Amino acid sequence: MLQPWLVILVSAVYFLLLFTIAYLVDNKKLGLDRFLKLPFVYALSLGVYCTAWTFYGSVGRAASSGIGFLPIYIGPTLMALLWVVILKRMISISRNQRITTISDFVASRYGKSSRLAKLVSVVCVVGIIPYIGLQLKAVSGSFHVLVSTETAMAEHGGLFSDTAFYTTIAMILFGILFGARHLDSSKRHEGLVAAVAFESVVKLVAFLVAGISIVWFIFNGPIDLFSQAAEKGITDGLFTFGEATITYSEWFWLTLISMFAILLLPRQFQVAVIENISVRHVDTAVWLFPLYLLLINLFVIPIALAGLILFPAGTVDADTFVITIPLMHDMPAVAMLVFIGGISAATSMVIVAVVAISTMLSNDLFVPALLKWKSPKSQNLPDESIQSQLLFIKRLSVVLVLLASYFFISFINQEYSLVSIGLISFAAVAQFAPAIFGGMFFKKVSETGAFAGIISGSLIWFYTLVWPTFELSGIFATTALDYGPAGIWWLNPHALFGLNSLDPVSHSVFWSLSINSFIFAFISIIRKPKIPEIAQAELFTSIDIETGNSGQGLTMDYRTAAKDELLQILTRFLGEQKTQKALSDFNLGHDSTLQKDSNEANEAFIQYAESVLGGIIGAASAREIVSSAVSERPIHLENVMVLLDETRQALEYSRALESKTAELNKTTDRLTVANEKLKELDLLKDEFMYTVTHELKTPLTSIRAFSELIKDHPEMDPEKKNHFLGIITSETDRLSRLITQILELQKFEQGFTSKNKQALYIFDFIDKTLQAAHGLIHEKNNFELQLDVDRNTKILADNDFLEQAVLNLLSNATKFANKENPRILLHLCIDQNMVCIAIHDNGEGLAEEERELVFKKFSRGKFAVESGVSGSGIGLAVVKAIAEDHKGLVTAGDSHLGGACFKMHLPILKDIS
Amino acid sequence: MAATILIVDDEPNIVISLEFLLAQHGFKPYVSRNGEQAIDFIDSNATDLILLDVMMPGKSGFDVLQHIRKKATSDQPKVVMLTARGREQDIKKGTDLGADAYITKPFSTRELIKLIKSLLSIEH
Fold first, then answer.
1. Cβ <8 Å between A698 and B107
2. Which of B24, B57, B85 is facing A868, going by the closest CB pair?
3. Which residues in chain A touch residue B84, judged by CB atoms under 8 angstroms apart?
């Protein structure tokens, strides 16, 4: 047992700590705000999912149905797998649209529908307030367990006392200070998030400490605990996935609504979407959050078993096992820590839920009422007064939500455990799932469909889950649960249409979600979206997760407004300074859209004004206010649809045309290039024919002339005759050499490769080649030979081809060497592990850009053409073909002699031995 | 006095054959190995006929022909183009520039002598 003053003191200190953390972060003191930039803090803040229900209720549920408490945690884990797709999208959309709450999200999607905003808000308020009350009850309940010597279960009435009220006051203070501080609800509440993340750590540590103390200090480890439980037959049926724990249908439906709850509960939407700093944090949360859930559930079963062993036959409420076990076993410090953990679980949920609910309440219900009462356009209202009124309304909402929760728990029947009330809330927010997820991925769903779906689902939920609680608590005494209302059996709230095989929650979720989805889909088909919805649908479905840009977005100029009237409205809500800033922000993004001198605001500016205003009072209210300054052009929906269809078709058509044109252009380009190449080739061919003809006809001319001369002049002296005959012979040789080369080049081009390659000593090869070149090289052109190669070096070569290649190079060198004082050098060396036959001359050399070109057939060096050195443009092409056939290469460069240097690299033949 | 004929060709063997041929028929042959040499010779010597190769290093036969026809002298030499080029546009170019005849390689020495004689005898 603990002294009440001590418990109150410790709690007060804990609250003070929370306030301090929130204050320091909000005011950017001590650098604590930097923690928020860490992804794991985001994952921890999602831990707001684990409320007092998890902290106390899981053990309670495990004590009665074993692992049946798990679906509540399996659902979120499954959903976490989809976060990368769904949550990131929701975050990007919300940032883009300055969305403030879940009701704002739904309303924004469906053309900023005011009635949808109101409906979702009402469902949230009705669905969540009991849940908040439940948390307050848990705090006061655990307080009483902690301070009373008697077991808490003995006095049901005592569970509810003023402790809950004090907690409520503390929460109101916290909510106003850190939740309703700014006017702009789309702004993040850093202090609040920091406090929530901190509380997530506290409750996890507290629960783990309790678990460890119970398992290892009260019992002798898990084996001892489980064997004791088995002896007493407690474990029977607690560990099977099946009807023994909870029914299969319960497994399914509870998992499903938990999947929705992790995103759609107002507090989850608040921390996961609105308070998110970076979409990248989601990537960490995807694994870290399920891990958190696993850790906090690790000791649920052991503690439940311990409780059942220690307090047999329901002497103690299983919901309080976590705190009663350490308390009864002389571990007051652990009990105290557990109590603080419970407070942290309860308060973190309360704070965030209250901020979210009160924002909805004020934006969707109170503000529209206020605006109806006092037109924002009326001139007699000072600007500051609207802003302070708004802030007042926001704070008032916080107070109202908490007080309502407080009063709720004074009415509720104690029979309803922590878990049941939580599940009722889950089932409530599940009604938004079809409209939200459908709206995020399908363009064609309509506001009418969403509204009808949610309202029918919610009514069924209310009738099948909420109404019975009134009856069970005895507020209304009817026999509906037994025989149906007024004896109509098929309207029995727990067995609609005679479906009595499901537990109440599964039954309610089955009917409400099925009918909700069906009506949503059916009405969306018969009632098409209206103009404003189409624009929003485009924004929601085409959002880009990485950039946050909403694709193309449809801007139909169907509204106009006077610019000064819009600015006046903005100034009312934002103040002069922020309005000016908003205006300049807009002008930055839409350079000349809003003409300075024109007083007409276009659709883009109206939308912008709406979104800025929406950040403060929600999208639906913002649209309502802006509409007072806006005049709509009469566009009929049919016309818009026709227009849209036409635009789309035209767009598709022009896209198709564009791609065709692009294709055609590409083909044309390719053809042009090919044509140019052909022309070039044709020119080259002409040039080739021309040079080849010349080269062939020149020796022919000599041969013919000399043979005619010899024939016509038999008197010619024999010496002269011999000379002429010699010329005929050499010209015939020249002719045949030329023809051979042309044919060889042709062969190599067609893929010929020599089969006559054999191992040759490079020395022998050079020796033979020089003998064959005796006509080319002689003392007159100062031929030099330099051998820097081992005499045993061998190559694999076709002697005839290679000889011809070297002869061609030598012949070129003699043609291009300096005329007055020619120098030619054949240098044999090893270079880059290859044999290198380098032939230098001291001529004009080759320009850089010609060094590759000269090896192309028919092309000749510029100097060769200009200086009229004869040649067919074939010699080097043949050299190249031969070098390549020998797995070598030939290159042209500068020579140290001042002219050109042609190097032929050939692989060295390694001796196999 | 024997008529003077200038042979303009860069191919030594062809020059040898032409020198011999012309000398055999009583002409006085002179030789230029390229266009520049030819122009130099023509500018300082009177020539009766020129055998002009088209494709030569440096100045081509056409260039030389142009140079000759530009001169304002009354005693313009006869010009016979000797070339491997047999295309019509080449022949037309030659005649447009003022060539008297056009002979494609390989040529017949007898035909050539006949042509030369006829060109020179018309004048006489």
1. no
2. B57
3. 693-694, 697-698, 701
- The pLDDT of A725-748, averaged and rounded, is 85
Which tens digits make up the pLDDT trace of A371-404? 777 655 554 555 556 777 778 888 888 888 888 8
Name which CATH class applies to B4-123.
Answer: alpha beta
Residues A628, A662, single domain; the answer is: no
Instruction: Give just the sign of the alpha carbon dihedral A814, A818, A824, A830.
Output: negative
- Do the Cβ atoms of A705 and B57 come within 8 Å? no
Asked if residue A912 belongs to a domain, the reply is no
Q: How far apart are CA A779 and CA A767, in angstroms?
A: 17
Mark yes or no for CB contact B109/A705 under 8 Å. yes
Chain B hits for A698, CB-CB cut-off 8 Å, are 11, 14, 84, 105
Answer whether residue A442 is part of any domain: no
Q: What is the pLDDT of residues A212-254, one digit of tens each?
A: 988 888 888 888 888 888 777 766 666 655 555 677 778 888 8
Whether residue A776 is contained in a domain is answered as yes
| Enclosing domain of residue A736 | 638-746
Residues from chain A contacting residue B16 (CB–CB below 8 Å): 727
Last residue of a domain, one of A746, A767, A802: A746
Interior/surface letters A674-704, b for 16+ CB within 10 angstroms, e for the rest: eeeeeeeeeeeeeebebbbbbbbbbbbbbbb
CATH code of the domain in which A273 resides: 1.20.1730.10
* Distance to chain B for A686, nearest Cα, Å: 12
Chain A partners within 8 Å of B24 (Cβ): 709, 713
Amino acid letter for position A746: Q
Shared domain check, A318 and A214: yes
Domain boundary among A364, A397, A417: A417
pLDDT in tens, A136-182: 888 877 887 777 644 443 344 444 456 777 778 888 887 887 777 66
B14 touches chain A (CB under 8 A): yes
Sort residue A824 into left (φ over 0), alpha (ψ -120 to 50) or beta. Answer: beta
Between B109-123 and A637-712, two packed helices, what is the crossing angle to 10 degrees? 90
Indicate if A47 and A168 belong to the same structural domain: yes
Regarding predicted confidence, which is higher, A624 or A210? A210
Q: Where are chain B's structural domains? A: 4-123
Is B11 in Cβ contact with A709 (below 8 Å)?
no
